[in-house]
Structures are given as C-alpha cells and as structure tokens.
Design brief:
Strand content: 15-25%
Number of helices: 3
Largest sheet: 4 strands, antiparallel
Order of helices and strands: HHHEEEE
CATH architecture of the largest domain: Roll
Number of strands: 4
Helix content: 25-40%
Strand order of the largest sheet: 1-2-3-4
CATH class of the largest domain: Alpha Beta
CATH topology of the largest domain: Nuclear Transport Factor 2, Chain: A
Oligomer: single chain
Length: about 120
C-alpha cells in the first residue's frame, strides 16, 4: 500500500512539473511571436494615416503614404492629390505639419518662402 501511494505522488509531481514547464514555454512563444509593426508598437496603420490626412484636407485623396523616422519619432508623410503634404505622428495620429509639397522643380512654381521673390 505504501509503494502505491509513493508512485501516485511521484506521478502527480511529474505531471504538475510537466504542465508548468509546458505552460511557461507556451507563454514564452506567444509573448515573442512576431507581429506586424503597427500592432506591436501601437502605431497607426498606413490606411489610418491616410484617413487622417484626407480628413484634414476635405476633397483631397492620398496618393502616397510613407513612414519615416524623424529623431526618435515615427512620422507618416502623406502626399495628397491637391499638392499638400501632411505629416502625422504615427503613435498618436496628431497632425504635426501641413504644407504644399515641393516637387523639386523650382522652375515652374512660386516663391519657396514668404521672403523669397520668384524671379521667373
């Protein structure tokens, strides 16, 4: 009788230890499972950034959405079809800046700043 009681305690202990180890492994696997960047860091998705930019400029449609790193901050730059560029904080969705986008061709646009005279 004493031998049977010892075996059953040993079996119960082994099962409990196995369960605890297996549970720890499963928790570790799920905690370190790869996730997409926006879900992992709590950032907006590109579609959410697009919607924020289009809401800021009614009637405009986003043509390009780019996630960039500026200092320690992730920022979406959204180009709109009306020539506007909207910078959005990827973590909060706050609009950081709106400006007319510069197409890089200074020969056929107006002054680049309020103090500059267009001599074309």
């Amino acid at each position: 009788m004493k031998q049977t009681n010892w075996m059953s305690r040993r079996t119960i202990f082994a099962l409990l230890a196995t369960g605890i180890l297996l549970g720890g492994v499963l928790i570790g696997v799920f905690m370190n499972a790869p996730r997409n960047a926006s879900a992992q860091s709590g950032q907006l998705t590109p579609n959410e950034a697009k919607a924020v930019a289009e809401e800021a400029s009614p009637g405009a449609t986003a043509t390009d959405v780019t996630l960039e790193r500026e200092g320690s901050q992730d920022v979406y730059e959204v180009q709109l079809d009306n020539g506007m560029e909207v910078e959005i904080d990827a973590a909060t969705g706050e609009i950081l800046e709106t400006e007319l986008s510069d197409d890089g061709d200074d020969g056929n646009d107006g002054p680049d700043s309020a103090n500059e005279v267009d001599d074309d």
